[in-house]
Amino acid sequence: MQTIIELxxxxxxxxxxxxxxxxxxxxxxVFIETGLFFGFFLPGDSLLFIAGMxxxxxxxxxxxxxxxxxxxVTLISVAGILGNFTGYWFGKKSDxxxxxxxxxxxxKKYLVQAKAFYDKKGGGAIMLAxxxxxxxxxxxxxxxxxxxx
Length: 149
What we know:
Radius of gyration: 19 Å
Number of helices: 8
Number of strands: 0
Distance between the termini: 51 Å
Largest sheet: none
Shape: elongated
Order of helices and strands: HHHHHHHH
Strand content: under 5%
């Protein structure tokens, strides 16, 4: 019990977070938020802002502080891209299950409308979805379900 209390007390301590790999948790959260179905509730935007502040104030293992920034920006970007690929793949593999009958989240009518929208707007719709908090999680999944190229 004492360990759990210590964990919650240290969650606001940036030095403790950095010592125990906190920025790698940020990378994992970005991956989950952009690609996995249940990631829509994660605080991606505010988390990236805080991660930037932590990166700016940490001692860098690299010779140049800019290298630390480039490392983390690259890692977080790759996590977002891989998350999108994973979401697309998940949507492509699960389309047969979700197209069979309507359920509480996906209705066949909505998927047909999404396909028409993606066919009309193309990649611009996906690019715009990257900047809309909840939609960014579902956009690659729905794109995979409607087999967007």
